[in-house]
Amino acid sequence: MKKLLIILLVSISTLSCEKDNLIPKKDIPDWLKESIDALEQKIEAEPTTSQAYGSWVRYEWKNNYYFEFINPISSLSATPKDMNGDLLNNYSEYLNEKCCMRYVWKGPKYKEY
Fold it and tell me: Which has more confidence, 23 or 2?
């Protein structure tokens, strides 16, 4: 009985951690909310689109947040954008120093590798 209870508690905590991994909606900039809404509409209209396998993530770098759309089945590299939606210029330094990845949104077919 104890083993069953432990397994149940671990399973529940694992599921709840997945939900908590997304950043709060209030922390998502308006430009990104609009982009996510458009992306969800496209996926709903065309469920086989490769964008259904992607996700938006947020990184920290030099006390600021930057957002990237990552897609493991695409050959395009992620293009970091700041809180205003502007592209980042100093890409190589950012790549080496960014940290603290958090998911903003995950496509319905997104898988972590």
Answer: 23
For residue 87, the one-letter residue type is: L
Query: Comparing 21 with 13, which gets the higher pLDDT?
Result: 21
Write down the residue that tokens 């908590």 correspond to.
20
Find out whether 104 and 23 touch, Cβ atoms under 8 Å: yes
What is the rounded average pLDDT for all residues in the chain? 85
**36: in domain:** yes
61 is a domain residue: yes
Is residue 98 one of the residues assigned to a domain?
yes
Q: Report DSSP letters for 46-103, one per residue.
A: -TT-GGGG-EEEEEEETTEEEEEEE-TT--SPP--B-TTSPBPS-HHHHHHH-EEEEE
Give the range of the structural domain holding residue 79, as residue numbers without chain letter.
23-106
The pLDDT of residue 39 is 96
Cα angle 110, 25, 32 (rounded to 5 degrees) comes to 65
The answer to whether residue 10 is domain-embedded is no
- What pLDDT is stored for residue 16 in this prediction? 42
